[in-house]
Write a structure and sequence with these properties.
CATH superfamily of the largest domain: PPM-type phosphatase domain
Number of helices: 14
CATH class of the largest domain: Alpha Beta
Strand content: 25-35%
Distance between the termini: 83 Å
CATH topology of the largest domain: Phosphatase 2c, domain 1
Radius of gyration: 32 Å
CATH architecture of the largest domain: 4-Layer Sandwich
Oligomer: single chain
Shape: elongated
Helix content: 25-40%
Number of domains: 3
């Protein structure tokens, strides 16, 4: 006895199964049978598994083990996958066989039947649909198509073209000789080429030999491929591009295979169209955010400043973190904030808040008044989001600072002797929660040679860890930096976050080294 999960991997095998299959359970568990047992690697056997899964009907087959013994397999599908039985038998053609596998029931009983082929083709369509739901960008969609389509249909070359400005442009290629596709880049939609005409007509084109392709398109350049499938990529009646599959041997495309490839073309088209819209929105959003962040920090005598921003790696890779340094009549205001969410809307609200803070600051408002007015503005916007902010007004002549916090993590202070500590300043509630909230102002002295570090929670928060641990870790890194090289210090503080491939939140950092006038 053995069991397979819905992906076809072995989850159980009993001792007798080990003996008949000549493999230890440790080698079988978690693997596809046809990967561990080379004599089961014939696609016909895998198709039996796929057919049973899709039809939910029991099926059976016999296999000859390399040592000469014949084995019977019976597969029973259930909600968890398949339960299988394997037993010794005789060759199917041998008369008088004393053990025969039970007759399978349903339309999938005959080995090599059209139903089996249809089930296998349907499996590839279902599998592709599942994979494409997880692909977000155009590049991810193309990579998923190449990974799934070539192995599923035995192709050696794949090219994906998309329409841009009424011309065909290559989005992805795999397996082609270097430079071979260059002459097809940017061809217009009236070009006499199968990759173009399959799209303009909306009809798949299949060539089962080089002679047939050359006869239809005498001027076309050919490489080593022997047969081709040209598929139109059309989503909701809108032309998206074309997909070209190449095979290194002459190939007869069955009716079921043509139907499956045509269906896959529709899935790919929908995924590409969705991804192109995402990429366009992403480009717009990143451009918006880059325009809203400061391109340079103002030169302030007695003070050196630098900033860093890292987008999150999930979703739109855009959010509401910002930093700023604003010159005032009393010195300079150091500002950092974080609007909740990761979207174009979050970036838009961030831009409004940054502009508001800038306006209230330059109108000579005190730190408490600046945050109080900003809070009222966010409440009046009714944007449905909240924000945090830390605002420090610093006099570079005296080193006197006045700080106010709105639900934001505490700033850090690195002393000239290398000690670093968080400044536990009293604070008010998040911006946008209570329109009438007040924000207490706390004065403190910044010693010469010290560095102030303002940051957003993306720098100190990690899944499963307390935020205080993250703040302590950043404090330790800050203590090891040198105030004489602020750029290196900033790179060191965001180094771990910059190298993370799974960064759920944005990171903003503002460093200010106070040298005195």
């Amino acid at each position: 006895m053995f069991s397979l999960d819905q992906d076809g991997r072995v989850t159980y095998a009993n001792r007798r199964g080990e003996e008949l299959l000549r493999r230890d359970r440790a080698a079988l568990l978690g693997r596809h049978p046809w990967e561990v047992l080379p004599w089961l690697a014939d696609p016909a056997y895998e198709d039996r598994y796929r057919a049973a899964m899709l039809s939910q009907e029991a099926t059976s087959f016999t296999v000859r083990h390399p040592d000469g013994q014949w084995l019977g397999f019976v597969l029973h599908p259930d909600v968890h996958g398949l339960t299988g039985r394997v037993f010794p038998t005789r060759a199917p053609e041998a008369p008088g066989a004393h053990v025969e596998p039970p007759e399978p029931r349903g339309p999938l009983a005959v080995a090599g039947s059209g139903a089996l082929a249809r089930a296998g083709a349907l499996h590839h369509v279902v599998q592709m649909a599942s994979v494409l739901t997880e692909a977000v960008t155009v590049r991810e969609v193309c990579a998923a198509v190449a990974e799934q389509l070539l192995p599923a249909f035995g192709g050696q070359e794949l090219a994906l073209y998309v329409i841009r400005d009424r011309r065909m442009h290559l989005a992805w290629e795999s397996g082609y000789p270097e430079g071979f596709l260059d002459e097809f880049e940017g061809v217009p939609l009236n070009a006499h080429l199968p990759g173009v005409e399959t799209l303009t007509t909306g009809t798949p084109i299949f060539f089962e030999s080089r002679n047939r392709l050359s006869a239809a398109y005498p001027e076309i350049s050919l490489d080593r491929m022997q047969s081709w499938a040209f598929l139109p990529l059309v989503a909701s009646g809108h032309p998206v591009g074309s997909c070209i599959l190449g095979y290194d041997r002459p190939r007869v495309f069955t009716r079921d295979e043509r139907a499956a490839l045509t269906a896959l073309g529709g899935l790919v088209a929908q995924a590409l169209e969705r991804a192109r819209l995402y990429d366009a929105e992403f480009t717009l959003a990143r451009g918006l955010q880059n325009a809203l962040l400061p391109h340079r920090l103002p030169p302030v005598p007695g003070l050196r400043m630098t900033g860093r921003y890292l987008p999150g790696t999930q979703g739109m890779e855009i959010g509401g973190d910002w930093y700023d340094a604003i010159e005032t009549a009393r010195g300079v205001a150091l500002v950092i904030g974080d609007v909740e969410g990761h979207s174009v809307a979050a970036a838009a609200v961030m831009g409004q808040l940054r502009s508001a803070v800038h306006a209230f600051t330059t109108s000579d408002g005190s730190p408490g008044e600046v945050l109080r007015h900003t809070n009222q503005l966010l409440a009046d916007l009714d944007a449905g989001v909240f924000a945090t902010c830390c605002y420090i007004e610093l006099d570079p002549r005296s080193g006197l600072a006045r700080a106010v916090r709105a639900g934001h993590p505490p700033p850090l202070l690195r002393h000239a002797d290398g000690r670093a500590e968080p400044l536990e300043l009293p604070g008010g509630t998040l911006l946008g929660v209570d329109r009438d909230a007040d924000y207490p102002v706390t004065p403190f002295q910044v010693p010469r040679g010290a560095v102030l570090a303002l940051y957003t929670d993306g720098l100190v928060e990690k899944p499963g860890e307390d935020i205080d641990q993250g703040i302590a870790a950043v404090c330790e890194r800050l203590a090891r930096t040198s105030p004489d090289d602020l750029e290196s210090a900033a790179d060191a503080l965001v180094g771990d976050a910059h190298g993370a491939t799974d960064r759920p939140d944005d990171v903003a950092l503002l460093l200010a080294a106070y040298m005195g006038v």
